Automatic annotation (TrEMBL):
Gene3D superfamilies given in the database record: Peptidoglycan recognition protein-like
Similarity comment text for this entry: Belongs to the N-acetylmuramoyl-L-alanine amidase 2 family.
Residues covered by the Peptidoglycan recognition protein family domain: 170-317
Species of the source: Thermorudis sp
Alphabetical GO biological process terms: peptidoglycan catabolic process
Matches recorded under Pfam families: Amidase_2 (PF01510)
Name of the molecule in the record: N-acetylmuramoyl-L-alanine amidase
Stored SMART domains: Ami_2 (SM00644), PGRP (SM00701)
Highest taxon of the lineage: Bacteria
Domain N-acetylmuramoyl-L-alanine amidase: 189-335
Molecular function, one GO term: zinc ion binding
Length: 348
């Protein structure tokens, strides 16, 4: 079980608005592992109805490598809001602005909160966001209520003790191999947040993570997604059953082993295996090693699936046995360029 969180909060006044800053530390159970640190800021009551708002720079005492952004807003018909973030290692040299897209795997919460997929970058100590607000077709303004900006350090310098963990079936990197902190699956009282449940796999659903393409440290990306799902989203685990990086390495996802139910496709998780390819394939083709490993994973982990089969599934008609997230939910996932190779995956 994870040790109790150390949380510190401070209220600040910035440009007439309220900023709530929160520092959360989660102590890892292994004696040589450091704490996962998540720092977040919430801004309220400072946004225009149209135009551009740029936040002040926020700084952290230690480097981070993952940025998380979420917001609550009322957007009238025809209106839009576009978020971007940037980071700096020293407060002087900044990255280009990185535009954000809503995370296709989380959807809107009951309170209306929208999450963007985590942004992975080089270690930084300062970050900033901006938002462009365009009014509706009748001039109605966007009502941006709140923005939460968070940063997490998922780097792995102190995860050397994981190097010799045996591979699953000789080729799949287990959770311990990519540095999963199993204590995140439990609450402060030791109760498992999301106990495993099981169902035979009937369908394969392919995703993209909408994170950096070809990341230099893919395991750090997997850890960032794990932290985002387990802590920020509050699920208590990573939602995908497996993840595949650009070099073709495959990572065990959701805890529980074969046939465990994940959280990757709203309304259709039971009876499906969710496989995510690290990267954003909206306008970029997926690397061939990733496709090769994706096909091998499906072949070895779901041999009962007819790759070219189509059938009813829940309330859907003519669903392919191997499909993309967009075949189930209203989303662009897994990106046009990954989606267009799925027929080839079925045929090989």
């Amino acid at each position: 079980m994870r040790q109790p969180r150390m949380t510190r909060r401070a209220f600040l006044q910035v440009a007439g608005g309220l900023v709530l800053a929160t520092l959360t530390e989660i102590r890892l159970p292994h004696p040589v592992a450091r704490a996962i640190t998540r720092i977040s800021w919430v801004e309220r009551g400072i946004f225009p109805g149209s135009g551009t708002y740029t936040s002040p720079p926020f700084t952290t005492p230690n480097p981070f490598n993952s940025i998380e952004v979420s917001w609550k807003a009322a957007v009238p018909p025809g209106a839009s809001l576009t978020f971007a973030v940037r980071a700096s290692p020293d407060g002087q040299r900044w990255t280009d602005w990185i535009f954000l897209e809503p995370d296709p795997h989380s959807g809107a919460r009951p309170d209306g909160r929208i999450y963007a997929a985590p942004v992975l970058l080089e270690p930084s100590t300062a970050l900033q966001y901006r938002v462009q607000l365009e009014p509706g077709i009748d001039g109605s303004p966007v009502q941006l209520e709140e923005v939460e900006l968070g940063c997490v350090d998922t780097r792995g310098q102190e995860l050397r003790f994981l190097a010799d963990v045996p591979l699953i079936d000789g080729w799949i990197i287990p959770r311990a191999g990519w540095g999963a902190d199993e204590s995140l699956r439990f609450d402060e009282n030791g109760r498992e947040i999301w106990p495993p449940s099981y169902a035979p796999v009937e369908k394969i659903i392919i995703h993209h993570t909408v994170t950096q393409n070809n990341p230099p440290d893919p395991a750090a990306t997997v850890r960032a997604i794990y932290a985002y799902h387990a802590i920020t989203q509050g699920w208590g685990d990573i939602g995908y059953n497996f993840l595949v990086d650009w070099q073709g390495n495959v990572y065990e996802g959701r805890y529980g082993g074969p046939n465990v139910v994940g959280a990757h496709t709203a309304g259709y998780n039971t009876g499906t295996m969710g496989i995510a390819v690290l990267g954003d394939f909206t306008s970029t083709a997926p690397p061939q090693p990733a496709i090769d490993s994706l096909m091998r994973l499906i072949r070895e982990r779901a041999p009962q699936i007819d790759p070219g089969g189509i059938s009813y599934f829940r309330d859907l008609v003519d669903v392919p046995n191997i499909g993309g997230h967009r075949d189930y939910n209203i989303t662009e996932c897994p990106g046009d360029h990954l989606y267009e190779v799925i027929p080839d995956i079925r045929g090989r």
